[in-house]
Design a protein that fits this description.
alpha/beta, D-Maltodextrin-Binding Protein, domain 2, 2 domains, three-stranded antiparallel sheet, 14 strands, periplasm
Length: 544
């Protein structure tokens, strides 16, 4: 779909459903009229084939499935690399083993690539909670022992800013069709000082997933509609007290916060989901720090309200037993997809897993929207609350990508091999499969939002419109909370998790005291890194 047409449609606030129907019709018409119709048909054929591996409702994909997908998507590699061209090359790839996804899929996708090119890949597998510490250790000691890394854009300040990455060759951008990215993932994301370093694999945003069978006439909540504001979600546990889940018969619970927030910095996003609604004012791009001073805003009344929400729910025993030991993986994969709880915020994994994972029981009753809003928003510049509705989707993490390190820059054969492997993983067709099946990633290309392709895989149209729409509406929301790509961002997040858990466990007297402890810790980090440079980079990340 042409970008200018989408922008025009978005500007007049076309409905999600009308937009997607129009996009599909336009895509179909363009394909029919194109002088490259034969090539388009061949590509569509590959996309149709891979979406049937294994097929929605046919169980979780296996390593054999990942290898089949990787094999079917090798055409772009073969156009740029001769068979056996990288014989003798060994590459080391560092990435996640979260929920047996990420690196596990990459292994399968890349086995056919290895067989064709002759290269060999060695793997460094990290749990998500260990990722930041391992990367920061490599940065601090200058001992980068990997050639390819799966990494999020927030780390670009720590890596590209220190000269640790290799610049993307032009042929790679052509192979992966980089212009297909949704707007918010285009430059400056993936770039540093005007140079491009990133192949996108993902389009991270948190969205709201909820159980449709918890709401409506005669439902266990007694509510006709799904709550769309945090204030109403906070009241949900009282309405569910003593009720049982319609699917499992187990006790019913409301919103699932991951009270074990300590998750290597990634757990802080789940407090942000609440805080952005209260603290990201639509007239102010900043919400984490003051852009002129880097003074933290994390202890202003908006953030304090978010922390207070959680403390109140803990005090009211509103969560499942042992929720203090539930990290975000537990809330999504063990609890919500397993039939516990009415709602949660998470990345797109919940959407694809709901219909394609063996462990999900909620696929027929799950719905999606942008993150909840609030009925008031704190205006930091004015120093006062405004009693008006506010939505601010948390565009958490800016998506995973693949980067090549400067360790290979002096060896052209090894460099080309590393970029070829990365380009295979970030290709246009393979990305459609990772968006539709459990992978750790979610839709991030304009071409992902053609729901006929998803229907052909076995998804029903209503589900696809709901799930894809929640992503699209978040990416393009006028008040989206975009994450800053500044050095040390996960140092800030990690220490915030530590202080937040202390507050939940009663080590601080109040939400304000908890927030003040986070702010004080953030001030120390800023001084250690260098305040003036942080101010410069933070302003740049906000487009100021």
């Amino acid at each position: 779909m042409k970008l200018e047409l989408y922008n025009r449609i978005a500007a007049i606030q076309a409905s999600r459903r009308s937009f997607m129907k129009g996009a599909a019709a336009l895509a179909a018409g363009t394909a029919l009229s194109s002088s490259l119709a034969g090539r388009a048909f061949a590509q569509d054929s590959v996309r149709a084939q891979i979406l049937q591996i294994p097929g929605v409702g046919k169980g979780s994909p296996t390593d054999a499935d990942w290898q089949k997908v990787g094999e079917l998507c090798l055409a772009a590699t073969k156009a740029n690399v001769a068979e056996g061209e990288f014989a003798g090359v060994e590459l080391t790839f560092m990435g996640l083993n979260n929920q047996n996804l990420h690196n596990f899929l990459f292994r399968g996708f890349l086995k056919p690539w290895e067989a064709y090119t002759g290269a060999k890949i060695n793997w460094i597998d990290l749990a998500q909670a260990d990722y930041n510490a391992r990367l920061q250790q490599s940065i601090a000691t200058g001992t980068v022992d990997f050639d390819i890394i799966e990494m999020g854009a927030p780390f670009e300040g720590d890596t590209a800013g220190r000269g640790l990455l290799d610049e993307m060759p032009e042929w790679v951008a052509t192979q992966i069709e980089a212009d297909d990215l949704v707007n918010y993932l285009k430059a400056p994301v993936g770039t540093w000082d005007g140079k491009t370093y990133r192949i996108n694999l993902d389009g991270d945003t948190h969205t709201f997933a909820y159980r449709k069978d918890y709401f409506g006439d005669g439902s266990i909540s007694g509510l006709a509609d799904v709550p769309t504001h945090w204030e109403d979600l906070n009241a949900l546990p009282a309405a569910l007290a003593g009720k049982n889940d319609p699917l499992t018969g187990a006790p019913a619970y409301g919103f699932l916060d991951p009270l074990k927030y300590q998750w290597g910095g990634f757990g802080f996003y789940f407090l942000e989901d609440r805080a952005t609604a209260y603290a990201k004012h639509p007239d102010d791009p900043a919400w984490l720090f003051d852009p002129d001073t880097m003074k933290p805003r994390v202890n202003n009344p908006g953030w304090v309200q978010a922390i207070q929400d959680v403390l109140d729910l803990v005090k009211a025993n509103a969560y499942p037993p042992d929720q203090l030991n539930a990290d975000p993986n537990a809330t999504a994969f063990s609890q919500f997809l397993g039939g516990t709880g009415a709602a949660l915020t998470w990345w797109g994994d919940v959407g694809s897993n709901a219909r394609t994972s063996d462990t999900s029981v909620v696929g027929d009753v799950v719905g999606f929207s942008i993150n909840p809003g609030a009925k008031k928003v704190y205006n930091h510049k004015a120093g006062a609350w405004e009693e008006k509705e506010n939505f601010a989707p948390n565009l958490a993490y800016l998506g995973w990508g693949v980067y090549v390190t400067s360790r290979v820059s002096a060896d052209e054969k090894k460099r080309k091999a590393a970029w070829s492997a990365a380009a295979h993983l970030g290709g246009k067709d393979i990305s459609l499969w990772t968006s539709a099946y459990p992978s750790g990633f979610q839709p991030y290309r304009n071409s992902h939002f053609q729901y006929e392709e998803w229907e052909a895989a076995g998804y029903d149209r209503a589900f696809v419109e709901d799930y894809l729409g929640s992503n699209l509406d978040s990416y393009n929301h006028p008040n989206g909370a975009i994450e800053p790509r500044i050095p040390g961002i996960f140092q800030y997040y990690s220490i915030a998790e530590d202080e937040l858990v202390k507050g939940i466990n009663g080590q601080y007297a109040s939400a304000q005291e908890t927030a003040d402890a986070i702010a004080a810790a953030w001030e120390k980090i800023t001084d250690q890194i260098g305040r003036d440079n942080q101010i410069k980079l933070y302003k740049a990340s906000l487009g100021m």
